[in-house]
Amino acid sequence: MTSFERRSIISGVGQSAVGRRLNRSGMDLTLEAARAAIADAGLTTADIDGISTYPGGGSAAPGGFAGPGSPEVQDALRLQVNWHSGGSEGAAQLAAVINAVMAVGAGLARHVLVYRTVTEATAQGAGGRQPIGLGGGGRQGVSGTMQWSLPYRAYSAANWLAMNAQRHFHEFGTTAEQMAMIPINARKNAALNPKAVYTDPMTLDDYFASRMITTPFRLFDCDAPVDGSTALIVSTAEHARDVDHPVARVEAVGTALRGRPSWDQFDDMTTMAARDAGAHMWTRTDLKPADVDVAELYDGFSFLAMAWLEALGFCGHGESGAFIEGGHRIALDGELPLNTHGGQLSAGRLHGFGFIHEACVQLRGTAGARQVAGSVEVAAVGNGGGPIAGAMLLTREG
Amino acid sequence: MSAAPFRVLPHLDDENRFFWTSGADGQLRFLRCGDCSEYVHPPAPECPACAGRRLSPEVVSGRGEVFSYTINHQQWDGSPEPYVIALVEIDEQIGLRLTTNLADIDIDRVGVGLRLKVCFEQQGDVFLPMFTGDDR
Ligand SMILES: [Zn+2]
Known about the structure:
The complex is a heterodimer of chains A (398) and B (136). With 398 residues, chain A is of the alpha/beta class.
Protein backbone atom coordinates (compact mmCIF):
# COMPACT_ATOMS: atom_id res chain seq x y z
CA MET A 1 0.00 0.00 0.00
CA THR A 2 1.44 3.37 -0.99
CA SER A 3 -0.41 6.04 0.90
CA PHE A 4 0.15 9.77 0.53
CA GLU A 5 2.06 9.80 3.79
CA ARG A 6 5.00 7.86 2.39
CA ARG A 7 5.65 10.45 -0.26
CA SER A 8 7.01 12.72 2.50
CA ILE A 9 10.00 12.90 4.78
CA ILE A 10 10.94 15.35 7.48
CA SER A 11 14.25 16.41 5.97
CA GLY A 12 15.25 19.01 8.50
CA VAL A 13 14.46 20.23 12.00
CA GLY A 14 15.33 23.41 13.84
CA GLN A 15 14.59 24.90 17.22
CA SER A 16 15.24 28.34 18.64
CA ALA A 17 16.45 29.05 22.12
CA VAL A 18 13.83 27.79 24.58
CA GLY A 19 13.29 29.33 27.97
CA ARG A 20 11.22 31.11 30.55
CA ARG A 21 10.82 34.78 29.58
CA LEU A 22 13.39 35.19 26.85
CA ASN A 23 11.92 38.62 26.05
CA ARG A 24 12.39 38.00 22.34
CA SER A 25 9.65 38.42 19.78
CA GLY A 26 7.84 35.46 18.27
CA MET A 27 9.16 36.42 14.85
CA ASP A 28 12.74 36.54 16.13
CA LEU A 29 12.41 33.03 17.57
CA THR A 30 10.59 31.74 14.48
CA LEU A 31 13.29 32.91 12.10
CA GLU A 32 15.98 31.33 14.27
CA ALA A 33 14.16 27.97 14.14
CA ALA A 34 13.23 28.26 10.45
CA ARG A 35 16.75 29.14 9.30
CA ALA A 36 18.13 26.20 11.28
CA ALA A 37 15.59 23.77 9.82
CA ILE A 38 16.13 24.94 6.23
CA ALA A 39 19.91 24.56 6.59
CA ASP A 40 19.52 21.17 8.27
CA ALA A 41 17.48 20.01 5.27
CA GLY A 42 20.29 21.04 2.94
CA LEU A 43 18.12 23.74 1.39
CA THR A 44 17.95 27.49 0.99
CA THR A 45 14.93 29.76 1.26
CA ALA A 46 14.73 29.64 -2.56
CA ASP A 47 13.88 25.92 -2.31
CA ILE A 48 11.00 26.40 0.13
CA ASP A 49 7.76 26.37 -1.83
CA GLY A 50 5.26 25.81 0.97
CA ILE A 51 4.57 27.12 4.48
CA SER A 52 2.30 25.81 7.23
CA THR A 53 1.70 26.72 10.86
CA TYR A 54 -0.52 26.19 13.88
CA PRO A 55 -2.58 28.05 15.05
CA GLY A 56 -2.01 30.93 12.65
CA GLY A 57 -3.65 34.22 13.43
CA GLY A 58 -0.51 36.25 13.59
CA SER A 59 1.67 38.14 16.02
CA ALA A 60 -1.17 40.37 17.18
CA ALA A 61 -2.93 37.51 19.01
CA PRO A 62 -2.75 37.99 22.80
CA GLY A 63 -1.12 35.83 25.41
CA GLY A 64 1.82 34.53 23.41
CA PHE A 65 -0.18 31.44 22.35
CA ALA A 66 0.07 32.19 18.62
CA GLY A 67 3.32 32.88 16.89
CA PRO A 68 3.54 34.94 13.75
CA GLY A 69 1.10 33.93 11.03
CA SER A 70 2.25 32.30 7.83
CA PRO A 71 1.97 35.50 5.74
CA GLU A 72 4.27 37.30 8.18
CA VAL A 73 6.88 34.55 8.10
CA GLN A 74 6.58 34.11 4.35
CA ASP A 75 7.27 37.80 3.99
CA ALA A 76 10.15 37.90 6.46
CA LEU A 77 11.90 35.10 4.58
CA ARG A 78 10.73 36.42 1.17
CA LEU A 79 9.45 32.95 0.31
CA GLN A 80 7.74 32.30 -3.00
CA VAL A 81 5.28 29.52 -2.24
CA ASN A 82 2.93 27.32 -4.20
CA TRP A 83 0.95 26.38 -1.10
CA HIS A 84 0.35 28.01 2.29
CA SER A 85 -1.82 27.25 5.29
CA GLY A 86 -2.34 28.18 8.92
CA GLY A 87 -5.12 27.36 11.33
CA SER A 88 -6.18 25.87 14.62
CA GLU A 89 -8.97 23.51 13.55
CA GLY A 90 -7.78 20.02 12.71
CA ALA A 91 -5.75 17.17 14.12
CA ALA A 92 -4.32 19.16 17.02
CA GLN A 93 -1.01 20.95 16.56
CA LEU A 94 0.07 18.16 14.23
CA ALA A 95 -2.52 19.40 11.74
CA ALA A 96 0.07 21.87 10.49
CA VAL A 97 2.48 19.01 9.78
CA ILE A 98 -0.18 16.71 8.36
CA ASN A 99 -1.44 19.47 6.05
CA ALA A 100 2.12 19.85 4.77
CA VAL A 101 2.39 16.08 4.23
CA MET A 102 -0.87 16.20 2.27
CA ALA A 103 0.35 19.14 0.18
CA VAL A 104 3.57 17.31 -0.67
CA GLY A 105 1.66 14.09 -1.35
CA ALA A 106 -0.69 15.97 -3.65
CA GLY A 107 2.19 17.57 -5.53
CA LEU A 108 1.39 21.13 -4.48
CA ALA A 109 4.76 21.64 -2.84
CA ARG A 110 8.18 19.96 -2.59
CA HIS A 111 9.61 21.54 0.57
CA VAL A 112 7.26 22.95 3.20
CA LEU A 113 8.41 25.02 6.16
CA VAL A 114 6.24 24.03 9.13
CA TYR A 115 6.57 25.86 12.44
CA ARG A 116 4.96 26.50 15.81
CA THR A 117 6.02 29.41 17.99
CA VAL A 118 5.01 30.32 21.54
CA THR A 119 5.93 33.28 23.73
CA GLU A 120 3.59 32.41 26.58
CA ALA A 121 6.20 32.79 29.30
CA THR A 122 7.07 36.35 28.33
CA ALA A 123 3.42 37.25 27.71
CA GLN A 124 2.33 35.94 31.11
CA GLY A 125 5.12 37.74 32.90
CA ALA A 126 5.28 37.37 36.64
CA GLY A 127 1.51 36.93 36.89
CA GLY A 128 1.58 33.31 35.82
CA ARG A 129 -0.88 31.44 33.68
CA GLN A 130 -4.11 33.27 32.99
CA PRO A 131 -7.48 31.58 32.90
CA ILE A 132 -9.47 31.41 29.69
CA GLY A 133 -12.18 34.04 29.38
CA LEU A 134 -11.32 36.35 32.25
CA GLY A 135 -9.42 38.83 30.12
CA GLY A 136 -10.98 41.86 28.42
CA GLY A 137 -14.27 40.76 26.90
CA GLY A 138 -14.94 37.85 29.23
CA ARG A 139 -16.99 39.91 31.63
CA GLN A 140 -19.31 41.09 28.86
CA GLY A 141 -21.09 37.74 28.66
CA VAL A 142 -19.85 34.63 26.96
CA SER A 143 -21.29 33.01 23.82
CA GLY A 144 -20.60 29.80 21.94
CA THR A 145 -19.24 26.67 23.53
CA MET A 146 -17.48 28.49 26.39
CA GLN A 147 -20.87 29.53 27.84
CA TRP A 148 -21.22 25.95 29.12
CA SER A 149 -18.07 26.05 31.26
CA LEU A 150 -16.96 29.58 32.14
CA PRO A 151 -20.05 30.55 34.21
CA TYR A 152 -19.15 27.64 36.50
CA ARG A 153 -15.63 28.99 37.01
CA ALA A 154 -14.28 26.10 34.95
CA TYR A 155 -11.86 28.51 33.35
CA SER A 156 -9.03 26.30 32.26
CA ALA A 157 -8.34 23.13 30.32
CA ALA A 158 -6.88 22.01 33.65
CA ASN A 159 -10.41 21.95 35.07
CA TRP A 160 -11.99 20.29 32.06
CA LEU A 161 -9.35 17.57 31.71
CA ALA A 162 -9.17 16.93 35.45
CA MET A 163 -12.67 15.52 35.04
CA ASN A 164 -11.44 13.10 32.37
CA ALA A 165 -8.71 11.98 34.75
CA GLN A 166 -11.09 11.70 37.71
CA ARG A 167 -13.46 9.50 35.70
CA HIS A 168 -10.50 7.29 34.72
CA PHE A 169 -9.50 7.06 38.38
CA HIS A 170 -13.08 6.05 39.24
CA GLU A 171 -13.57 3.43 36.53
CA PHE A 172 -10.16 1.80 36.61
CA GLY A 173 -8.73 2.47 40.07
CA THR A 174 -5.98 4.63 38.62
CA THR A 175 -4.04 6.44 41.33
CA ALA A 176 -2.15 9.69 41.80
CA GLU A 177 0.97 7.61 42.60
CA GLN A 178 0.72 6.07 39.15
CA MET A 179 0.01 9.36 37.38
CA ALA A 180 3.04 10.89 39.14
CA MET A 181 5.27 8.68 37.03
CA ILE A 182 4.57 10.87 33.99
CA PRO A 183 6.09 14.06 35.48
CA ILE A 184 8.81 12.14 37.35
CA ASN A 185 9.88 10.35 34.17
CA ALA A 186 9.77 13.62 32.23
CA ARG A 187 12.00 15.31 34.79
CA LYS A 188 14.55 12.50 34.67
CA ASN A 189 14.79 12.85 30.91
CA ALA A 190 14.86 16.64 31.07
CA ALA A 191 18.01 16.46 33.18
CA LEU A 192 19.73 15.08 30.05
CA ASN A 193 18.32 17.78 27.76
CA PRO A 194 20.37 20.99 27.76
CA LYS A 195 17.34 22.98 26.53
CA ALA A 196 14.88 21.77 29.16
CA VAL A 197 13.56 24.45 31.51
CA TYR A 198 13.17 22.29 34.64
CA THR A 199 15.95 19.84 35.41
CA ASP A 200 16.13 19.49 39.21
CA PRO A 201 15.42 15.91 40.29
CA MET A 202 11.78 15.24 41.26
CA THR A 203 10.84 12.57 43.81
CA LEU A 204 7.42 11.18 44.59
CA ASP A 205 7.51 13.25 47.80
CA ASP A 206 8.25 16.38 45.75
CA TYR A 207 5.30 15.53 43.54
CA PHE A 208 2.91 15.19 46.46
CA ALA A 209 4.29 18.37 48.01
CA SER A 210 3.43 20.40 44.90
CA ARG A 211 0.28 22.41 45.37
CA MET A 212 -3.07 21.19 44.18
CA ILE A 213 -4.43 23.03 41.13
CA THR A 214 -7.65 21.13 40.46
CA THR A 215 -8.01 17.56 41.70
CA PRO A 216 -6.35 15.28 40.77
CA PHE A 217 -3.94 17.66 39.01
CA ARG A 218 -1.13 19.17 41.03
CA LEU A 219 1.21 21.87 39.80
CA PHE A 220 3.64 19.19 38.61
CA ASP A 221 0.91 17.66 36.43
CA CYS A 222 0.68 20.91 34.45
CA ASP A 223 3.09 21.85 31.68
CA ALA A 224 5.47 24.79 31.89
CA PRO A 225 4.83 27.82 29.65
CA VAL A 226 7.93 28.86 27.74
CA ASP A 227 9.10 30.93 24.82
CA GLY A 228 10.43 29.07 21.81
CA SER A 229 9.92 28.07 18.23
CA THR A 230 10.21 24.70 16.51
CA ALA A 231 10.43 24.28 12.75
CA LEU A 232 10.41 21.26 10.44
CA ILE A 233 10.87 20.88 6.73
CA VAL A 234 8.43 18.42 5.16
CA SER A 235 9.98 17.39 1.84
CA THR A 236 9.19 15.11 -1.01
CA ALA A 237 10.63 11.65 -0.26
CA GLU A 238 13.17 11.72 -3.12
CA HIS A 239 14.99 14.46 -1.25
CA ALA A 240 16.23 11.89 1.31
CA ARG A 241 19.20 10.99 -0.91
CA ASP A 242 20.31 14.63 -1.11
CA VAL A 243 20.52 15.06 2.66
CA ASP A 244 23.71 14.22 4.55
CA HIS A 245 21.95 12.60 7.50
CA PRO A 246 19.18 10.10 8.20
CA VAL A 247 15.66 11.50 7.94
CA ALA A 248 12.27 10.71 9.40
CA ARG A 249 9.91 9.19 6.86
CA VAL A 250 6.23 9.73 7.45
CA GLU A 251 4.64 6.30 7.81
CA ALA A 252 1.09 7.14 8.83
CA VAL A 253 -1.11 9.86 10.27
CA GLY A 254 -4.19 9.65 12.47
CA THR A 255 -6.77 12.38 12.14
CA ALA A 256 -10.12 10.77 13.03
CA LEU A 257 -12.60 12.39 15.41
CA ARG A 258 -15.65 10.20 15.91
CA GLY A 259 -16.88 11.19 19.37
CA ARG A 260 -18.67 14.50 19.88
CA PRO A 261 -16.05 17.24 19.52
CA SER A 262 -16.74 18.65 22.96
CA TRP A 263 -14.82 18.87 26.23
CA ASP A 264 -17.77 17.65 28.31
CA GLN A 265 -20.08 15.79 25.89
CA PHE A 266 -17.50 13.29 24.55
CA ASP A 267 -18.99 9.82 24.83
CA ASP A 268 -16.28 8.13 26.92
CA MET A 269 -14.65 10.57 29.30
CA THR A 270 -11.90 8.09 30.20
CA THR A 271 -10.63 8.38 26.66
CA MET A 272 -10.32 11.49 24.57
CA ALA A 273 -10.23 12.26 20.87
CA ALA A 274 -6.84 10.54 21.05
CA ARG A 275 -8.77 7.25 21.00
CA ASP A 276 -10.05 7.99 17.49
CA ALA A 277 -6.87 9.50 16.06
CA GLY A 278 -4.77 6.69 17.50
CA ALA A 279 -6.97 3.92 16.12
CA HIS A 280 -7.12 5.69 12.76
CA MET A 281 -3.34 5.87 12.55
CA TRP A 282 -2.97 2.10 12.94
CA THR A 283 -5.38 1.50 10.04
CA ARG A 284 -2.92 3.27 7.74
CA THR A 285 0.19 1.17 8.35
CA ASP A 286 1.29 -2.44 8.62
CA LEU A 287 3.39 -1.58 11.66
CA LYS A 288 2.09 -2.44 15.13
CA PRO A 289 2.42 -0.81 18.55
CA ALA A 290 5.10 -3.38 19.45
CA ASP A 291 7.27 -2.01 16.62
CA VAL A 292 7.50 1.43 18.23
CA ASP A 293 10.90 2.24 19.76
CA VAL A 294 10.09 5.63 21.27
CA ALA A 295 6.83 7.45 22.13
CA GLU A 296 6.54 11.23 22.28
CA LEU A 297 3.07 11.87 23.70
CA TYR A 298 1.41 15.14 24.59
CA ASP A 299 1.60 15.91 28.30
CA GLY A 300 0.02 19.33 28.65
CA PHE A 301 -1.38 17.61 31.71
CA SER A 302 0.17 14.36 32.88
CA PHE A 303 -3.04 12.36 32.41
CA LEU A 304 -3.04 13.18 28.71
CA ALA A 305 0.10 11.12 28.15
CA MET A 306 -1.63 8.20 29.89
CA ALA A 307 -4.66 8.54 27.65
CA TRP A 308 -2.33 8.58 24.63
CA LEU A 309 -0.58 5.38 25.79
CA GLU A 310 -3.98 3.70 25.73
CA ALA A 311 -5.14 5.42 22.54
CA LEU A 312 -2.11 4.18 20.62
CA GLY A 313 -2.48 0.66 21.94
CA PHE A 314 0.68 0.47 24.01
CA CYS A 315 -1.58 -0.88 26.75
CA GLY A 316 -5.28 -1.63 26.98
CA HIS A 317 -8.06 0.82 27.76
CA GLY A 318 -7.85 1.65 31.44
CA GLU A 319 -4.45 -0.01 31.88
CA SER A 320 -2.15 3.01 31.63
CA GLY A 321 -1.89 3.37 35.40
CA ALA A 322 -0.53 -0.13 35.80
CA PHE A 323 1.60 0.28 32.66
CA ILE A 324 3.51 3.27 34.02
CA GLU A 325 3.59 2.16 37.66
CA GLY A 326 7.11 2.42 39.02
CA GLY A 327 8.20 4.15 35.82
CA HIS A 328 10.40 1.34 34.49
CA ARG A 329 8.57 0.64 31.24
CA ILE A 330 8.59 4.29 30.15
CA ALA A 331 12.15 5.10 31.26
CA LEU A 332 14.90 5.89 28.78
CA ASP A 333 16.11 2.28 29.13
CA GLY A 334 12.63 0.78 29.36
CA GLU A 335 10.54 -1.10 26.81
CA LEU A 336 8.83 2.10 25.62
CA PRO A 337 10.88 5.25 26.33
CA LEU A 338 8.39 8.10 26.76
CA ASN A 339 8.88 11.83 26.31
CA THR A 340 12.63 11.44 26.10
CA HIS A 341 13.28 15.21 26.03
CA GLY A 342 11.29 15.89 29.19
CA GLY A 343 7.91 16.55 27.62
CA GLN A 344 6.08 19.82 28.05
CA LEU A 345 6.05 19.17 31.79
CA SER A 346 9.80 19.72 32.15
CA ALA A 347 11.28 20.67 28.76
CA GLY A 348 8.59 23.33 28.26
CA ARG A 349 5.30 23.87 26.52
CA LEU A 350 6.41 24.14 22.89
CA HIS A 351 2.84 23.09 22.27
CA GLY A 352 2.95 19.83 20.39
CA PHE A 353 5.96 20.54 18.23
CA GLY A 354 8.48 19.60 20.92
CA PHE A 355 7.31 16.00 20.55
CA ILE A 356 7.71 15.65 16.80
CA HIS A 357 11.04 17.45 16.99
CA GLU A 358 12.24 14.96 19.59
CA ALA A 359 10.92 12.02 17.54
CA CYS A 360 13.01 13.19 14.57
CA VAL A 361 16.10 13.72 16.73
CA GLN A 362 15.77 10.25 18.28
CA LEU A 363 15.29 8.61 14.86
CA ARG A 364 18.41 10.37 13.61
CA GLY A 365 20.39 9.26 16.67
CA THR A 366 21.46 12.79 17.60
CA ALA A 367 19.78 13.18 20.99
CA GLY A 368 23.09 13.20 22.87
CA ALA A 369 22.93 12.12 26.50
CA ARG A 370 19.24 11.28 26.23
CA GLN A 371 19.56 9.20 23.04
CA VAL A 372 17.73 5.91 23.42
CA ALA A 373 20.23 3.04 23.23
CA GLY A 374 20.21 0.76 20.21
CA SER A 375 18.62 1.46 16.88
CA VAL A 376 15.57 3.74 16.94
CA GLU A 377 13.59 2.77 13.86
CA VAL A 378 10.01 3.79 14.66
CA ALA A 379 8.66 6.73 16.65
CA ALA A 380 5.06 7.51 17.59
CA VAL A 381 3.85 11.06 18.19
CA GLY A 382 0.54 12.10 19.73
CA ASN A 383 -0.63 15.69 20.11
CA GLY A 384 -3.63 17.17 21.81
CA GLY A 385 -6.04 16.64 24.67
CA GLY A 386 -9.79 16.45 25.20
CA PRO A 387 -11.64 16.77 21.89
CA ILE A 388 -8.46 17.63 19.99
CA ALA A 389 -6.04 14.96 18.73
CA GLY A 390 -3.62 14.09 15.97
CA ALA A 391 -1.14 11.23 15.69
CA MET A 392 1.84 10.44 13.50
CA LEU A 393 4.08 7.45 13.03
CA LEU A 394 7.60 8.13 11.77
CA THR A 395 10.31 5.73 10.64
CA ARG A 396 14.01 6.21 10.10
CA GLU A 397 15.39 6.32 6.59
CA GLY A 398 19.09 6.41 5.81
CA MET B 1 -26.55 29.28 49.34
CA SER B 2 -23.58 31.31 50.51
CA ALA B 3 -22.71 34.64 48.86
CA ALA B 4 -22.40 34.28 45.11
CA PRO B 5 -18.83 34.46 43.78
CA PHE B 6 -17.77 36.39 40.71
CA ARG B 7 -18.97 34.69 37.56
CA VAL B 8 -18.59 35.17 33.84
CA LEU B 9 -22.21 35.05 32.67
CA PRO B 10 -23.62 33.68 29.44
CA HIS B 11 -24.66 36.15 26.78
CA LEU B 12 -28.36 35.48 26.21
CA ASP B 13 -29.63 34.96 22.68
CA ASP B 14 -32.69 33.40 21.06
CA GLU B 15 -31.18 29.94 21.15
CA ASN B 16 -30.00 29.76 24.77
CA ARG B 17 -32.38 32.13 26.61
CA PHE B 18 -34.84 29.41 27.64
CA PHE B 19 -32.04 27.40 29.23
CA TRP B 20 -30.39 30.16 31.21
CA THR B 21 -33.68 31.68 32.43
CA SER B 22 -35.48 28.40 33.07
CA GLY B 23 -34.76 28.48 36.79
CA ALA B 24 -37.08 31.48 37.30
CA ASP B 25 -39.80 28.97 38.16
CA GLY B 26 -37.41 26.53 39.82
CA GLN B 27 -37.44 24.06 36.92
CA LEU B 28 -34.63 22.80 34.71
CA ARG B 29 -35.41 22.52 31.02
CA PHE B 30 -33.67 21.02 28.02
CA LEU B 31 -34.58 21.16 24.38
CA ARG B 32 -36.47 18.00 23.40
CA CYS B 33 -37.37 16.60 20.00
CA GLY B 34 -41.12 16.40 19.34
CA ASP B 35 -40.58 13.60 16.82
CA CYS B 36 -38.22 11.15 18.54
CA SER B 37 -38.14 12.47 22.15
CA GLU B 38 -34.34 12.95 22.20
CA TYR B 39 -33.08 15.62 24.61
CA VAL B 40 -30.70 17.88 22.71
CA HIS B 41 -27.91 19.77 24.46
CA PRO B 42 -26.38 22.21 23.75
CA PRO B 43 -29.42 23.72 22.02
CA ALA B 44 -29.50 23.32 18.24
CA PRO B 45 -31.95 24.12 15.43
CA GLU B 46 -32.54 20.47 14.57
CA CYS B 47 -32.49 17.10 16.30
CA PRO B 48 -29.17 15.28 15.73
CA ALA B 49 -30.92 11.92 16.15
CA CYS B 50 -33.72 12.27 13.57
CA ALA B 51 -33.14 15.68 11.92
CA GLY B 52 -36.56 16.75 13.16
CA ARG B 53 -37.15 20.47 13.60
CA ARG B 54 -39.93 20.30 16.22
CA LEU B 55 -37.71 21.05 19.23
CA SER B 56 -39.03 22.73 22.32
CA PRO B 57 -37.92 23.24 25.93
CA GLU B 58 -39.22 20.57 28.27
CA VAL B 59 -39.03 20.36 32.05
CA VAL B 60 -36.93 17.54 33.46
CA SER B 61 -36.88 16.12 36.97
CA GLY B 62 -33.79 18.09 37.92
CA ARG B 63 -32.24 14.92 39.29
CA GLY B 64 -29.01 13.31 38.27
CA GLU B 65 -25.65 12.20 39.53
CA VAL B 66 -21.99 13.11 39.52
CA PHE B 67 -20.42 11.65 36.38
CA SER B 68 -17.08 13.22 37.17
CA TYR B 69 -15.78 16.19 39.13
CA THR B 70 -12.79 18.24 40.14
CA ILE B 71 -12.18 20.31 43.24
CA ASN B 72 -10.60 23.53 42.07
CA HIS B 73 -7.94 25.11 44.27
CA GLN B 74 -6.30 27.50 41.81
CA GLN B 75 -7.28 31.15 42.35
CA TRP B 76 -8.22 31.89 38.74
CA ASP B 77 -10.65 34.65 39.65
CA GLY B 78 -9.17 35.78 42.94
CA SER B 79 -11.37 33.78 45.26
CA PRO B 80 -9.38 31.62 47.70
CA GLU B 81 -12.15 29.12 48.50
CA PRO B 82 -11.92 25.69 46.86
CA TYR B 83 -15.04 24.86 44.84
CA VAL B 84 -16.46 21.82 43.11
CA ILE B 85 -16.82 21.70 39.35
CA ALA B 86 -18.89 18.67 38.40
CA LEU B 87 -20.01 16.95 35.28
CA VAL B 88 -23.58 15.95 36.09
CA GLU B 89 -25.48 13.35 34.10
CA ILE B 90 -29.21 14.07 34.07
CA ASP B 91 -31.50 11.11 34.89
CA GLU B 92 -33.66 11.50 31.79
CA GLN B 93 -31.06 10.45 29.24
CA ILE B 94 -27.66 8.73 29.22
CA GLY B 95 -25.05 11.20 28.09
CA LEU B 96 -27.19 14.28 28.83
CA ARG B 97 -24.59 16.17 30.83
CA LEU B 98 -23.91 19.57 32.26
CA THR B 99 -20.68 21.05 33.50
CA THR B 100 -21.81 22.82 36.65
CA ASN B 101 -21.01 23.54 40.29
CA LEU B 102 -22.10 21.72 43.40
CA ALA B 103 -23.60 24.08 45.95
CA ASP B 104 -24.02 23.72 49.71
CA ILE B 105 -22.15 20.46 49.76
CA ASP B 106 -19.45 18.99 51.97
CA ILE B 107 -16.47 18.64 49.63
CA ASP B 108 -15.41 15.43 51.37
CA ARG B 109 -18.70 13.80 50.34
CA VAL B 110 -18.22 14.45 46.63
CA GLY B 111 -17.65 11.40 44.49
CA VAL B 112 -18.70 9.84 41.23
CA GLY B 113 -22.28 8.58 41.50
CA LEU B 114 -23.38 11.04 44.20
CA ARG B 115 -27.11 11.68 43.80
CA LEU B 116 -28.04 15.28 43.09
CA LYS B 117 -30.95 17.63 42.58
CA VAL B 118 -30.95 20.94 40.77
CA CYS B 119 -30.87 24.34 42.42
CA PHE B 120 -30.31 27.75 40.89
CA GLU B 121 -28.11 30.76 41.50
CA GLN B 122 -29.70 33.94 40.20
CA GLN B 123 -27.47 36.62 38.71
CA GLY B 124 -29.69 39.25 37.11
CA ASP B 125 -31.72 37.64 34.33
CA VAL B 126 -29.69 34.46 34.49
CA PHE B 127 -30.53 31.48 36.67
CA LEU B 128 -27.46 29.25 36.64
CA PRO B 129 -28.44 25.61 37.17
CA MET B 130 -26.36 24.02 39.92
CA PHE B 131 -26.75 20.89 41.95
CA THR B 132 -26.81 19.88 45.56
CA GLY B 133 -27.14 16.60 47.46
CA ASP B 134 -30.46 14.82 46.94
CA ASP B 135 -30.76 13.20 50.36
CA ARG B 136 -31.90 16.11 52.50
ZN1 LIG C 1 -35.46 13.67 16.97
